[in-house]
TrEMBL record:
Membrane topology term: Multi-pass membrane protein
Source taxon at top rank: Bacteria
Domain Sodium/calcium exchanger membrane region intervals: 38-189, 225-366
Keywords, sorted A to Z: Membrane, Transmembrane, Transmembrane helix
Gene source species: Streptomyces peucetius
Protein name as annotated: Ionic transporter y4hA
TM ranges: 12-30, 36-55, 67-88, 103-124, 136-156, 168-187, 221-238, 258-278, 290-314, 320-342, 349-367
Compartments in which it is found: Membrane
Annotated InterPro entries: Alkaline_pH_Ca-Antiporter, NaCa_Exmemb
Length: 369
């Protein structure tokens, strides 16, 4: 990379936004922030989100699918898990259900919000959203299995009172979650990678493969973007934690259920993936959008449950994982509708609208249970 290109690269806002957000994180860490400081941190968080999307797309273009969406999904989830553990350590008894609330919110947001917005964006531009049914169906089946093992079964087990796993059951759920996620990644990236590649229709007016055929960024630029992606995601999650006391106090003062905190945190953390997925769908790369959405849902469960299971060694208090009846109904509806969406390998505005309606119902019932 020449000196001129390097100077131009360093002058971009996508380079400075993550660094400024990290500075805001360092200055705000562990402090009670006044109102104006919360606003500044929120602005820095928004800049870091947009920068993370840019750098994720650079990395994705360099490594290709499905590795690009996998990098962003795993990176976001790893930092999301760190945020959940940190909040549970600092939150006291009220945080006993935080992992469940955040993970379930992530599943609903990804499987309904990101999927719905992506299908809507693609269908508005190309009339029909086309994707690979084999890969999307396999991903949805894995998400449904992980969600049932980790979030539904604790409600019905009898070894411990309440929606809790016994230590042995939690260990089994953690090992099964990690094993299934690892198996899926192996299938996605090695054995059946073609199932997760973008599908396009040459006969569809305006259909385009987007940046699939454009020149990939250089190795140094991609490596630099990977570093900045990690920095931006750390800033996103750290700044989200910095404003979380304000979120919790606002939720409490409004008389809303504490579960709303988990929903807001999930919405903030998943913003980079949401924007990246919608932008890919607008370029008719719907499979990349679904890889991001379902891969994120899978990683949220497959990585969070094992880490939380390990963290229970030093975390005090119960760990509530089982969903209530309302959320189980929404999860079942999501799986059924998701299956009907992915089986044909193509979707219209209607499918996108149905998924968004389910997400709207989840958010409304979180606010007004």
């Amino acid at each position: 990379m020449s000196a001129v290109n390097l100077t131009s690269f360093l002058s971009r806002w996508t380079v400075w936004a993550p660094l400024v957000a990290v500075v805001a994180l360092v200055l705000s860490w562990g402090r009670d922030l006044p109102g104006f400081a919360v606003v500044l941190v929120a602005v820095c968080l928004a800049g870091a989100v947009l920068a993370a999307v840019h750098h994720a797309e650079v990395v994705a273009h360099r490594v290709g699918e499905p590795f690009g969406s996998l990098v962003l999904a795993v990176a976001v989830t790893v930092i999301e898990v760190a945020l959940i553990v940190t909040l549970m350590v600092d939150g006291g008894p009220e945080s006993s259900s935080l992992a469940r609330d955040t993970v379930f919110a992530a599943v609903m947001i990804t499987c309904n919000g990101i999927v719905g917005l992506s299908l809507l964006a693609a269908a508005l531009r190309n009339h029909v959203a086309v994707f690979n049914a084999e890969g999307s169906g396999a991903a949805l089946a894995t998400v449904a299995t992980l969600a049932t093992l980790s979030l539904v079964l604790p409600t019905f087990t009898t070894s411990k009172p309440g929606p809790e796993f016994s230590p042995a059951q939690l260990t089994f759920a953690a090992v099964a979650s990690l094993g299934l996620y690892g198996l899926f990644v192996a299938v996605q990236t090695v054995r059946h990678r073609e199932y997760f590649m973008s599908v396009t229709r040459d006969d569809e007016p305006g259909s385009t493969a987007g940046d699939e055929h454009s020149e990939a960024p250089g190795r140094s630029a991609a490596l630099f973007s990977l570093v900045l992606l990690v920095v931006a995601l750390v800033a996103v999650v750290g700044d989200a934690k910095a404003v979380s006391p304000t979120i919790e106090s606002t939720v409490a003062s409004a008389g809303l259920p504490h579960a709303v905190v988990g929903v807001v945190i999930a919405l903030l953390v998943l913003l980079p993936e949401t924007i990246a997925a919608v932008r890919a769908a607008r370029r008719n790369l719907v499979q990349r959008s679904l890889n991001l959405a379902l891969g994120s849902a899978m990683a949220s469960i497959g990585l969070t449950i094992p880490v939380i299971a390990l963290a229970t060694i030093w975390l005090e208090g119960p760990l509530l994982l089982g969903l209530g009846a309302t959320h189980m109904v929404l999860l079942a509806l999501t799986v059924v509708v998701g299956a009907l969406t992915v089986v044909p390998g193509r979707a219209t505005l209607l499918q996108g609208g149905v998924h968004l309606a389910i997400l709207a119902a989840f958010i409304f019932l979180a606010v007004s249970p």
